[in-house]
UniProtKB/TrEMBL annotation:
The keyword Phosphoprotein applies. It is an enzyme of class 2 (transferase). InterPro entries: CDK, CDK11/PITSLRE_STKc, Kinase-like_dom_sf, Prot_kinase_dom, Ser/Thr_kinase_AS. This is cyclin-dependent kinase. Its EC number is 2.7.11.22. It comes from the Eukaryota. It catalyses: L-seryl-[protein] + ATP = O-phospho-L-seryl-[protein] + ADP + H(+); L-threonyl-[protein] + ATP = O-phospho-L-threonyl-[protein] + ADP + H(+). It comes from Citrus sinensis (Sweet orange).
Length: 332
């Protein structure tokens, strides 16, 4: 924690309002009293989770990971942590660039879903951020729409690195209790202890579907319900399409047999019912992101090079993305 010595005080910032309170932190909108700049301050909550997940004096290891990663990373699609500050009770705050919206709250307030060219603009920025992470051997492990920030310049940034971790080759056993249920890959739901970048790509698939439809793709209430919802839409996987499936701890459970992939029904090529329309190549990308076998699931490099981004309608330029009214408080 040497980096905290000599850091500025939080009293150099004027808190304007609370934006959100999550598991690991409270996020405020604040003004830097010296420069007048508007920033986001994330206060680290002490003693969160199990005792062994915190340092001796209660500082959560997940927050330490998040601070380390965000201070060392520099990419336009990753939220920038400018500095770390403290108050007189030794509470630690991350000072981040302020982003007007997160995509979860934004979609809840929008009347219409994003257009296809807007979704392409957002997806490209998301994939560029994920590529930077994977190229730097980091798994985010909690990609979801509330962790995607958008500003009024059309710039998307990934935030919340509390679950992220460095990975290496060969794969090591990790905990499977990661990734918010709705965005959690099937290998995690079935208890895989060895997993890799493909878990983030599944989440990206769920996010793409949600951006198109303006509603979550698989909104399970429990792990079993989540698996059930996935199988009902994509069909129950078999050892043939996913070699190694039967060795996963959860694969022994008796799941309903549903032999077909019904995803196209939810994203048809033409629609008279208001379902989101998706071209052949857009559907191909979505299907490749939502591929059961993590070994066959599309990688971030291949997703970035996918033909969908080159066919009309072309991705909207950030400068032409719509702007939205402010959402200063996004209480969960
Ligand atoms: N830089 C920022 N600018 C504006 N809003 C932000 C910023 N960072 C985070 N937020 C808002 O705060 C919310 C929570 O942030 P974050 O996910 O980092 O906190 P958390 O405590 O780890 O939450 P969770 O319980 O979801 O893990 C985000 O969904 C977003 O609405």
């Amino acid at each position: 924690m040497n980096m905290l010595q000599g850091c500025r005080s939080v009293f150099e910032f004027e808190k304007l309002n609370k934006i959100s309170e999550g598991t690991y932190g409270i996020v405020y909108r604040a003004r830097d009293k010296k420069s007048g700049e508007i920033v986001a301050l994330k206060k680290v909550k002490m003693n969160v989770g199990r005792k062994e997940d915190c340092l001796e004096y209660g500082f959560p290891i997940s927050s330490l990971r998040e601070i380390n990663i965000l201070l060392s990373f520099d990419h336009p699609s990753i939220v920038n942590v400018k500095e770390v500050v403290m108050d007189d009770h030794d509470s630690v705050y991350m000072v981040m660039e302020y982003m007007e919206h997160d995509l979860k709250w934004l979609m809840e307030s929008m009347k219409q879903p994003f257009s296809t060219s807007e979704v392409k603009c957002l997806m490209l920025q998301l994939l560029e951020g994920v590529k930077y992470l994977h190229d730097n051997w980091v798994l985010h492990r909690d990609l979801k729409t509330s962790n995607l920030l958008l500003n009024n310049q059309g710039v998307l940034k990934i935030c919340d690195f509390g679950m992220s971790r460095q990975y290496g080759s060969p794969l090591k056993p990790y905990t499977s209790l990661v990734v918010t249920l709705w965005y959690r890959a099937p290998e995690l739901l079935l208890g895989a202890k060895k997993y890799s970048t493909a878990v983030d790509m599944w989440s990206v698939g769920c996010i793409m579907a949600e951006l198109l439809a303006k509603k979550p793709l698989f909104s399970g209430t429990t792990e079993v319900d989540q698996i059930d919802k996935i199988f009902k839409t994509l069909g129950t996987p078999t050892e043939t399409i996913w070699p190694g499936l039967s060795e996963l701890p959860g694969a022994k459970a008796n799941f309903a047999k549903q032999p077909y992939n019904l995803l196209r029904k939810r994203f048809p090529a033409a629609s008279f019912t208001g379902s989101p329309v998706l071209s052949e190549s857009g559907f191909d990308l979505l299907n490749r992101l939502l591929t059961y076998d993590p070994e066959k699931r599309i990688t971030v490099d291949d997703a970035l090079n996918h033909y969908w981004f080159h066919e009309v309608p072309l991705p909207k330029s950030k400068d032409f993305m719509p702007t939205f009214p402010p959402q200063h408080a996004r209480n969960k």
